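Encode chain A's predicted structure.
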Amino acid sequence: MRTSSCVEGRNGFLSLRYHHRRALPPALLKALTVIHNYVLRRDDGTTAAKRLFGIPHGDLFEHFLQVIPPLSLPRKRTG
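Encoded structure for chain A:
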């Protein structure tokens, strides 16, 4: 299956924006890929994942809120 220009646009964006860094760490590249595919929206409200697969997906940040446990309270200061 061939991808559309939305993927090529991402590669062009990364090559222009991060050209001076030589190579991106794999974790950062993966995070940028997720943000591009599921968060960034065009004027018509579609994401790259919706345009590529043709089906809607859930909100990424709502998913994070369900998956990530709440943070613990800070320790109490003594003294």
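The chain is about 50% helix and 0% strand.
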